[in-house]
From TrEMBL, chain A:
InterPro entries: UCP030820. It comes from the Bacteria. It comes from Parvularcula dongshanensis. This is Uncharacterized protein (DUF934 family).
TrEMBL record, chain B:
It is an enzyme of class 1 (oxidoreductase). SUPFAM superfamilies: Nitrite and sulphite reductase 4Fe-4S domain-like, Nitrite/Sulfite reductase N-terminal domain-like. Its EC number is 1.8.1.2. PANTHER family: BLR3264 PROTEIN, FERREDOXIN--NITRITE REDUCTASE, CHLOROPLASTIC. Coiled coil: none annotated. Keywords: 4Fe-4S, Heme, Iron, Iron-sulfur, Metal-binding, Oxidoreductase. Residues 119-273, 411-550 form the Nitrite/sulphite reductase 4Fe-4S domain. GO terms for molecular function: 4 iron, 4 sulfur cluster binding; heme binding; metal ion binding; sulfite reductase (NADPH) activity. Residues 52-108, 337-399 form the Nitrite/Sulfite reductase ferredoxin-like domain. This is Sulfite reductase (NADPH) hemoprotein beta-component. It comes from the Bacteria.
From TrEMBL, chain C:
It comes from the Bacteria. InterPro entries: DUF2849 (IPR021270). The lineage of its organism: Bacteria, Pseudomonadati, Pseudomonadota, Alphaproteobacteria, Parvularculales. Residues 106-126 are annotated as: Disordered. This is DUF2849 domain-containing protein.
Amino acid sequence: MKLLELKDREWTLSDLDDGPGLLRVDNGQDLLESPPDLTGISVVRLDWPQFKLGQAFTQARLLRQRYGFEGQIRAGGAIFRDQAWHAARCGVTAFEIEDGAEDGWLESLHAYPYHYQRAVTGEAAWALRHGGSA
Amino acid sequence: MYQYDDIDKAIVQARVDEFRGQVARRLTGELTEDQFKPLRLQNGLYLQLHAYMLRVAIPYGTLSADQLRVLASIARDYDKGYGHVSTRQNMQFNWPALVNVPDILQRLCDAEMHAIQTSGNCIRNVTSDPFAGAAAGEVEDPRIWCEVIRQWSTFHPEFAFLPRKFKIAVTASDEDRAAIQVHDIGIQLRTNDAGEPGFRILVGGGLGRTPYIGHVVRDFLPRDQLLSYLEAILRVYNVHGRRDNLFKARIKILVNEMGEEAFTHAVEQEWEEIRKLGPSGSVDLPEAERARIAGFFREPDFAALDDTDFRADPDDAGYARWLSRNVSAHKRPGYAIVTVSLKPEGEAPGDITADQMDALADLADRYSFSDVRTTHEQNMVLPHVRQADLPALYAALSETGLGSANAGLVSDIIACPGLDYCNLANTRSIPVANRIQKRFSDPVRQAEVGELKIKISGCINACGHHHVGHIGILGVDKKGEEFYQVTLGGRADAEAAIGEIVGRGLATDQVVDAVEKLVDTYLSLRTGPEERFIDAYKRLGAEPFKEALYETA
Amino acid sequence: MSAENPGPRAQSPAKIAAGGVKKARLDGEKVITANRLTDGVVIYRAEGGAWTEDLSAAQVLEGEEAIGALAAAQADESTGVGPYLMDVETEEGIHPSGRGRIREEIREAGPTIHPQFGRQAERGAA
């Protein structure tokens, strides 16, 4: 397994490293009411036990937009490349991927030039249409 | 209608390219069927009994004449010469090959159409009133807000893998022609006491195996805050909706398990949190974008006409019946709304051939500002026809087999594809519809019976909306034989109600007799022709109908 | 509308029924059927693992042999999508039987409402 990670706005391949400061958040954990304890945490790993378990997309967005987490949000488990751009728009900045799979993941991450709605990353179409200001 | 700009075009084109790649990866084995399935479903592609089925989105049921011609070309080139209007205003093709689907999507894309999110556990094509922009009494054209929702929900990154599918309907008048009370979210445009426009929001309606009427979670939502409110509802659903049981995964189950009050509280609380992001983080549309989209739904260039007495004493009895059943009042003097029935006797309800599509497109160009609609009752509509053109339009429709004068009558049946096409069905639906049509073949008798909505589903998933049929018919499998259960008193209008099961299931050769008994009972008990079947049922209850149905059986 | 996602049974590994057919049992004669990946056409598994459009050319299996062949069919996704066991009787040729009989007859022949489509049309023309 490798890590495909957003560094200085570029997706970069590195070795997978479960160092200190990593917090694993369970797919079923409800983050609506309160955040996990993020003290000293630099990486939050979100889990897709099955690819269709989409709660983790909400978890990513809440970590970024409600709780202001600025470290790495990593996606692992059964998530596959065609879902990657959804996750990235929700604030995921790293993916655990199979060795040699990076070209496909990069293609999927760059599949869409525009987005209709505002999320964590990627300007909304309506903002572009009206001079970039809401 | 809405027209794509460069951004819309680039997004839909990217989708076509992405799916072309995904099909190729499936064919080489890089993608498993398990992974490919949600991807193809989110592009409207099912695998049915005999072939793949492609469900093309017709956003809020609005088409241009040219787009209808493109659908005709797809029917001709990739299907067996016909398409099928679904109960969510989409068009389905029953015979495309997987390897051709990327080319079909490209052809759609070139005509500013797509099949995005017409299936899968995501926010589906938003539906609306087929008379939008033509009927009187609208706050404004609901399609403005449908398009706003279409854009917001298309590839929404947070809500593409929900617990289950999610359907939204929007209407703008008190007369509900979009069945908003039986949708996951129903939205009614209205004004508050101060005259400001906004929305009433209903959540948790739905049909399927556990039917519910939606609850009002907000009686008035200011117009500019629609998207943040929808986002709050979807987020509560995505977090709390059940994923352990497919049959309990819809939002209606969540609303009823949490309780209406607790659910509403959770949504309102989430909405407050979302609003804390402030204008720089807001997901709501700026006024400039609302105005841009609204600009596409300005009225066509109506002529200043006077109403005519077009209903007075037509010579031809067929034309007279068509006028009384298929022609509705328009908001502008001198105009009318025409329902084009896709329910001729003996055909699959909602089917339309490629030649008929081309003919209808020509008639739309000639008589209705090139505007065509699809309806959830599986018919089509020409929304803006001059009253003076009605005789010529009727003649032209009749010539192409589209002149059935039966809108809202006993032969205007909603039926799912059933076991003739569908992978999930227990029983056939369409042959039952055809046999009922045949029994009530006499147009004079149909007119005498008056408005009667029969809806047939071939399994408990209720795609034929049987729960909200005045007479609902549900196919069930009994040890390998087709049986049918009858429900009564359902309706999908402003007084929406779930039909009541009247008794044990009927064998397939008893169904038509049963419908006839119900109709005869109604005719014998009604106070007069002005009391419709559903009114009589409301007054009398189920009892006299049950008695009639089971006295001799 | 036509289809929704299939029920949980569809995801279980040793599926011996599909669609509206509930509680199929392993007794009796079976044929493995699926839809062809490229165009969705109904196909049947013949001896040796090849697929055929012709039900009369299908391999009839029983018991553990049927389960074993089904597992092999499921492991190879390159041609047949969603393989499962259907009940057949073999009095005169091979014909669908059991609870799924109507469904399998329609799959084999084509939609009853459109006799001009499917294999029934070819037979009619022949």
